[in-house]
Structure formats: C-alpha cells, structure tokens
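Quick start: what a row looks like.
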Amino acid sequence: MSTDVFVEAQMLIRKPVADVFEAFINPEKTTQFWFTKSTGKLEEGKSVTWEWEMYGVKSNVKVHNIVSDQLIKTEWGDPAVQVDYEFKEMEKGTLVVIKSYGFAQSGEDLLKTVNDNTGGFTTVLDGCKAYLEHGIKLNLIEDKFPQK
C-alpha cells in the first residue's frame, strides 16, 4: 500500500462553514453537484451507498469520523482508500480540503489513480462552489465522461 502518496484538492467556497459542511453530509444537497443517489445522510460509524446512475456505478462509503463543521473521515472505492474532507472557516467563506490516501496501486496504475482522484475531487469542489454560491447545477460529473 502506498502510504506516502496522497491526493489533495481544495477550494474556497464563499458560504458559512455550516452550510458547506451540510452540503457534504446531506445527500439532498450533495446530489446537486456530485453523485446522483445515496442510501442516506453521512453519520459516524455508518455506511451508505453512493450511486452515479449515468455511469451505472455504486460505491459503499464507510464513515469513520465526523467532527461537526470541521471534518468527515471516510473510506470508499475499489480498492478502498481513505478520503477526508476538512472544513476551515475563513474570512471570506469556507476552505474545503479533500485528501485521498492509502492507495493499493503502484507504478503506472498509481499515477493514473492519483490523476483521476485529483481531477475528480477538483470537479466535485468546482460543482459545489457553483451550486452553493450561485444556485447553479453545472452537471460537471455527468458531463465529464458523456456516454453518447
């Protein structure tokens, strides 16, 4: 396992930390900029399934730790990796940092996974920013890999 390799994506979202944190916990909001379906709200010690219907893909998400308005620690993917979502209140809004680590791949496979994770989490943050700041649903995830 590649413990020294990690992905980090970040974005300032010009909204209060409570609003931004809720957007990642509550699937009614998260489905506006990321996955299309969830079996429930993120809760510490629970697992939910996220689904991207347009791609026919599902992922089981284990929630290891939640610190309200500060941190969400999860494990998901195949092979599973750790994904942390950190929220920091700032003068102009909320800084969201997504960190992914614990990759099982090596060599070229690891490089591809790091690239995919970096691009994917950046796209999620871009979509979240547009949705929370401007009420715009950009469909970035759906349009990233159009099927037809």
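That is the whole record. The radius of gyration is 15 Å. The helical segments are 17-25, 27-30, 107-134, 140-144.
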